[in-house]
């Protein structure tokens, strides 16, 4: 089992969710986060004054998947979250030792 963590642009959430549902992912967690990478932020003008915005709003999506689905999930996120512009985000994959569904006591792949 693996955990796929993707940092994406906020307006891509619905497309990514639809793509993950289409490949068989039944649940995900979304967190609003702020950060920067190569973008290094940007400047905005508000009421005539210029402000530096160092941290940009992003969404962090976390999905627990069976190892067999890993490549399909990563490909689905990559294809739908890509705009071709700087700041599209990143995907991180980590191992998952154990998963337990609290309601039923199912473990590992059955719990996903």
From TrEMBL:
One of its GO terms (biological process) is regulation of nitrogen utilization. The modification O-UMP-tyrosine is found at residue 51. Keywords: Nitrogen fixation, Nucleotide-binding, Phosphoprotein, Transcription, Transcription regulation. SMART domains: P-II. One of its GO terms (molecular function) is ATP binding. InterPro entries: N-reg_PII, N-reg_PII-like_a/b, N-reg_PII/ATP_PRibTrfase_C, N-reg_PII_CS, N-reg_PII_urydylation_site. SUPFAM superfamilies: GlnB-like. The keyword Membrane does not apply. The keyword Nucleotide-binding applies. It holds the Pfam family P-II. GO terms for cellular component: cytosol. In nitrogen-limiting conditions, when the ratio of Gln to 2-ketoglutarate decreases, P-II is uridylylated to P-II-UMP. P-II-UMP allows the deadenylation of glutamine synthetase (GS), thus activating the enzyme. Conversely, in nitrogen excess P-II is deuridylated and promotes the adenylation of GS. P-II indirectly controls the transcription of the GS gene (glnA). P-II prevents NR-II-catalyzed conversion of NR-I to NR-I-phosphate, the transcriptional activator of glnA. When P-II is uridylylated to P-II-UMP, these events are reversed. Belongs to the P(II) protein family. Homotrimer. This is Nitrogen regulatory protein P-II. The lineage of its organism: Bacteria, Pseudomonadati, Pseudomonadota, Alphaproteobacteria, Hyphomicrobiales.
